Amino acid sequence: MTETLVPALDPAAGRPGLSRLADDDLELLLLIRHFELELLRLYGRGELNGTTHTCLGQEYVPVALRPLLGPADFVFSNHRGHGHYLARFGDAHGLLAEIMGREGAVCGGVGGSQHVHRDGYLSTGVQGESLPVAAGVALHLRRTGPGALACVYIGDGTWGEGAVYEALNLAALWRLPLLVVVENNGIAQSTPTASQMAGTVAGRAAAFGIAHRLVVSADVNEIRRELEPAVARVREGRPLVVEFVTHRLGPHSKGDDTRSPQAIRAAQENDWYGRYAHDHPEHFHRFDGPARARVRGVADEVAARPPSRWSPCA
Amino acid sequence: MTTLTLAKSLNEGMRKAMEDDPKVLVMGEDVGKLGGVFRVTDGLQKDFGEERVIDTPLAESGIIGTAIGLALRGYRPVCEIQFDGFVFPAADQIITQLAKMPLRSLGALKLPVVVRIPCGGGIGAVEHHSESPEAYFTHTAGLRVVACSNPVDAYTMIQQAIRCDDPVVFFEPKRRYWEKAEVDTSAADGWLPFDRARIVRPGTDVTLLAYGPMVKTCLEAAAAAEEDGRSLEVVDLRSLNPLDAATVTDSVRRTGRCLVVHEAPVFGGFGAELAARITEECFYSLEAPVLRVGGPSTPYPPSRLEEHYLPDLDRVLDAVDRAFAF
Q1: Residue from B56, B68, B101 whose CB has the most chain A CBs within 10 Å, to mutate
Q2: What tens digit of pLDDT does each residue of A210-242 get?
Q3: Which single residue of A25, A152, A170, B125 has CA 20 to 30 Å from A68?
């Protein structure tokens, strides 16, 4: 039941080569990358407080899935969800305003980084909670909107939570159009996956009779091509777990990285950003500088806005 | 008028709500074919089908989570938690999602989910079939918490809870499920709003605040006290959050004495909130401190001991004596 998408090797470089991206995909990838870097800069300058969880290194996952998800689909995100939101809506202003508590915030600045609601999109920071809710949405979609699906992003650490299994059982039992996207970055906050998970994600999906795809590649075009038929089957009521083997470049949130320098270096070596710059320098540089400048402009504009105003619900 | 048990009143209320609104769903463990362990959903699956009355796996977090997802898509799910002690696996979904999502979204998300919980002891059952977990939920901003005490209120309040756009935790006094009353099932409006308290027995000397199963106990105490020449006013709170503070404080200002009676442990219980609130708002009217009658801070005991745990007429009357002696 498990199928693995193995990256195509570039024999010259001795590692997978990334295929050339469409301009809009590259722009989106860079938007997410520079958005996250800008957040860290703003924290460093004291313009943001509290903390956040960046998706640095994992940006390609929602970008690859973007055209596979339609407007009628419902996306559930998690604590590391800025990339998911930006891939869905491209709305850097609204998200940054939400995080900074400025006018124009998606949820009036009440939800913050982790709790964002917009039509067909909802995130929560508590691990695993979204799965049963996504199952409920998927049950509705199965009944009334054939062809639409509920997509829920989780991490490898999330598989410790019981709610995951309640939802997988419901999904298999009720044949729900539920797409579970696992961003397996090999570490749950500070605990390596091998220290917190017995068995495998594939084995757990198999226990429920749910199909599982393992994606090792970071090549957006390749991932998209390979996953398209599998995602189409989800729409027919065949739930699917897609597990991305990915890499978290930065700490869990900020200043809490317990990995060895070698492990961090390995994550950096796998980073799509450096790899794409190497494989397609002209294309990369044509968009990278403008993306950084664009995000900086967003940050300057949003920071200058007045605080978001809201009143408690009646 | 029809003579109905409290359980049947809830059943009739849900049936009416399902007839009125096709978006109303019932879901839970064994609610379909069996009709629930207390038969509160008896016959609903037969009449409304398996699509609207859903037998779920044993998965309280999954039940409430799925209900939230359905509510996001416009349904009005009514979830049965089979016994009070089974709500804790669902607490994550109730507290972290159901209560908070509407607030976080500034009301853009409506989650009209009703979580029905048979509560309290007195039926000779085990610990986790006899608990009173209401304070966990009254403490949570974003939830309405209500408790019915009699068949008439059961019929109307369940319908009001289902119609309400907010999440509602709906406590049902399981040991009163079989008590009967005349219920008017023809009227569809003119009901007391379900967030309002009701004075169920007027009196002049002491206010007894109760909800759910303890309302009847308080009424019995009031009848007994009358023989001693003491006039007890019994207020059925019905809604714990929001609290109908006006009805409560008006009563206490008139009587000058107040007891709070609930089955749940006194320590940190809902009575503590009432006592504090009344002290803040009625201080100069009080002849005695607000006294609390409730369970001890222990797990609910085995059934052979539960009569020692549950507040009864004698414990209420003892507290009335203490209020007068102060």
Answers
A1: B68
A2: 999 999 999 999 999 999 999 999 999 999 999
A3: A170
- Spell out, as residue ranges, where chain A has pLDDT lower than 70: 1-15, 312-314
Residue of B nearest to A121 (CA): B72
Q: What is the pLDDT of residues B170-196, one digit of tens each?
A: 999 999 999 999 999 998 888 999 999
- The yes-or-no answer to whether B2-183 and B198-325 have a common fold is yes
| Interface contact B62-A126, CB threshold 8 A | no
Q: In chain A, where are the structural domains located? A: 2-8+21-301
CATH of A2-8+21-301, one of 3.40.50.1450, 3.40.1000.10, 3.40.50.150, 3.40.50.970: 3.40.50.970
Q: Percent of chain B having pLDDT more than 90?
A: 95
Interface test with B, best of A98, A107, A139 (most B CBs within 10 A): A139
pLDDT tens, residue by residue, B16-42: 999 999 999 999 999 999 999 999 999
pLDDT over threshold 60, residue B326? yes
Tell whether B96 is within 8 A of chain A (Cβ).
yes
> Shortest Cα distance from A110 to chain B (angstroms)?
6
pLDDT in the model for residue B202: 98
Q: Give the dihedral sign, CA B86/B88/B91/B92.
A: negative
- B2-183 in CATH: which number? 3.40.50.970
Which CATH class, in words, describes the domain spanning B198-325?
alpha beta
Comparing CA positions, the residue from B77, B55, B58 lying closest to residue B66 is B77
Catalytic (active site) residue B139: no
- Residues in chain B closer than 8 A to A314 (CB atoms): 107
